[in-house]
Sequence to fold (98 residues):
Amino acid sequence: MLELGALRYTPAGVAALEFKLAHESQQAEAGSPRQVHAELSAIAFDTQAKLLTGRALGTPLRVEGFIGAKNKRSKRLVLHVTKIEFIEGEIDATAAQR
Fold:
């Protein structure tokens, strides 16, 4: 994690947390390997949001989710995290985040 916002609650009372991930990997493109480095805005709700609260920046993790609009009034795309896996013993946190 590169950035971690403050835990907040939606008008419906659901916990929400915005954060930013770093991603680093090697992917195949047009038959050749390509190094990929990216930063991605993300949001987690309910249990997933509470799992991230208070975690240190740089905590290595893997996430799953879907790309969607930040909210009903915004067209800005963010990763909506639905699953979080904390990686123990990982040295390079940016390489571990997806």
